[in-house]
Structures are given as structure tokens and as C-alpha cells.
Amino acid sequence: MTPFQKQARDLVSWHKTAMSLRRSARLLQHAIEADLSRIAEARYESGTEVPADRYPGLQLSTGFCLVAAYALENLLKGVLISREPELVREQKLDSVLITHRLLHLAQRAGFTLEVLDAFFLEAASEYGTWAGKYHTSRSLQPGRVFTWAFSDADFATFDRLFGMFEPELRKHVKGSVVYRVIGAVPGGPKE
């Protein structure tokens, strides 16, 4: 096995990365939810325009979608590699894994999805590909328009999908992530 194959087939790392991204998504989620609560408490009339800088947490919804997409992508690719290690070639990943298309990955992994889950995966794929990083895609795709009205229901959908994919990867993970302290830690124990 080549060093690349060893690294790419390391299921602990796929899992660790997904868990780390999920924690990041949670931090963004808390800020978004705090602003949604503040808006609900303000009881604005329908159609009221409010300056975006008054609710900076809402501006994090794009970041949440991007990080959530990458968390799910790591889980799905880890699941696929656990089942088909040959998807990791000597020096590169198979073309099946060279994608941000989450619905395709979930279907390849054999997950049964509800319509809402499939829609979320398609929208999250757009964030993982371009919408989480840029205001426009690289090119116009004929017949394809991307619009997504973000809502707090997306948090529940992300949780449901993560809860579906993560146990499937975890059952193939042997070992756990540890940290090794090197040198003195500021504020740590004194000798």
C-alpha cells in the first residue's frame, strides 16, 4: 500500500474531519439561532426591512451551509472508502470520489432518502461547490437556477442526515483521535 493509499483510507481521519466540521457548523448555528430569536422577539411587521449589521449571525448561514456540506461529504466519502477501498488508487482518488455532489455520494453509498433530504443534499452541494465561497458560479448551467431560502428547519435536516451517515462510518472506525501535548501549555500545570 502506498503512503497516499494509507492516508486516504484512514477512516479515523475521515470521521475526525467530519466531526470537527460538525462542531464548527454548530457554532455558526448557535449564532444564527440567537439572531433568529432576537428577530422573533422584536415582532417586526411583515415586509419590514432591517439592516443586516443589526443581525450579524444571519450572515453566517452561508458559512453554516458550506461547513455542513463538507461535514456530510467527509462522512459519505469515508463510508464509500470503508466499503470500497479500491476507490483509493495508488496515487489518487477514483473519479467517484472527486465530487461535491452529496446526493450522488449518498445514493452510491446506498442510503434511502426522503425528498427533503435529497433537496437539502442538492442545495448543500451547491454551497460546497461554489455558493459557500462566491456569489456566482463559474458558468451558467442551462436550465439550472439555484435559489435557497435558508430556514432553521435546515438545522434539523442536517442533524438527521449526519445522524444517518455518521453511525455507518463509525462502525468501520478503529481507534480514536488523540492530541499530544508538545512543550509547555500556557496556563497549564506549574512545576
List the helices and strands and how they pair.
Layout: H1 3-8, H2 11-42, H3 61-83, H4 102-108, H5 115-131, H6 153-170
Helix pairs in contact: 2-3, 2-6, 3-4, 3-5, 3-6
Please characterize this protein's 3D structure:
The chain has one domain (3-170). The protein is mostly helical. The mean pLDDT is 90. The protein has helices at 3-8, 11-42, 61-83, 102-108, 115-131, 153-170. It contains six helices and no strands.
In short:
By secondary structure, the protein is mainly alpha-helical.
Q: Assign a percent range to the helix content.
A: 40-55%
Measured by DSSP, the beta-strand proportion falls in under 5%
- Number of helical segments with 4 or more residues: 6
CA-based gyration radius: 20 Å
Shape: globular
* H/E element sequence: HHHHHH
Biggest sheet architecture: none
- How far apart, in Å, are the first and last alpha carbons? 45 Å
Oligomer, anyone?
Answer: single chain
Could you tell me the mean pLDDT? 90
Computed structural class: mainly alpha
Number of domains: 1
